């Protein structure tokens, strides 16, 4: 049976369940009616990130390109051209730039909290999307005009929040991408009329590929969205932080006092909560690993959630333990919520520093500055949703700002 059918029912746990049934972390299957291999665990991750074994060209199915990733972006590139393009993203991760984005995020959130009505109920997920999107646009050098701001923010969200939906949701994500690419193409064109400015969007507009050519307008727009869209998606992890903190009042002062514990808490949120279920690549040339033949061009599916919850790597993996990472020795192949290996050489996410910084700032605000109540609601995770979220997306009331 095609693995996609099982993954539609249970996107995060289907592969691990099948591994358990088969007694193996590696099995052959079909994906979209073609032969494929599923695998999970640290060894499988180390293999997956060997550039000599796998490539990313044509690995993603069309529905993912039409919504989440766009066409012609860094995700589908290989070898030297990939590393050159990747350097563009890595260049935005210097300390000064990261601190600036974090400051803008804190400022936006405090501004929202200051004017929030303590009698009103808010959906925390929606609030975070808007706060982060505004900060991200300002940081990247994109002007949000009030008349169209809500529309643009909604499109940035739809591309990652509805890409895995079926039916109407998926169709809305496709239309959001078409509109957002048009919006970004306009911004890129504007920057190309001016000398380079100290903003990421200007850097993308003026970036030249290995052949010294400017990116086509379409591809530049895709890369601009590859920066803005995932920053807005950090709202999911911040929502998860709030979810993990709920009912853990004793944890809040500890996190504020102990920076190591705060770092560990954030890592545990990224390990524990589901976000990307799997990653895809294609086999370059036929080889055999653990008695399985990886045939040229076959798709390989790495179980991200399963690796982050692998019993061979984590004690009681389905338990949330804030201090799990306090004495952890970093390993690029075990905790892989944003991919594994080396981000400069492979496809590992270039935005981990942004993600961690925003999460850290958000937890401090949630523990110290923001007072709020969480009314009765369904906080269970919706496991069929991509990304999985608490069912009621955390409704909060009584919002007040502590000085
Ligand atoms: C790639 C997750 C935040 C930009 C990836 C990958 C994952 C991931 C799983 C694929 C790794 C692979 O294919 O091997 C996440 C999660 C985030 C997040 C869960 C938090 C919400 C960010 C941020 C940025 C970003 C803040 C902004 C720079 C990218 C880009 C790629 C990528 C451009 C493609 C890299 C490549 O193909 O070389 N991310 N990411 N992500 N991420 Fe993130």
From TrEMBL:
One of its GO terms (molecular function) is monooxygenase activity. Belongs to the cytochrome P450 family. Heme binds at residue 349. CDD domains: CYP152 (cd11067). The keyword Iron applies. Pfam families: p450. It comes from Bowmanella dokdonensis. Keywords: Heme, Iron, Metal-binding, Oxidoreductase. Its cofactor is heme. InterPro entries: Cyt_P450 (IPR001128), Cyt_P450_E_grp-I (IPR002401), Cyt_P450_sf (IPR036396), Cytochrome_P450_3A (IPR050705). This is Cytochrome P450.
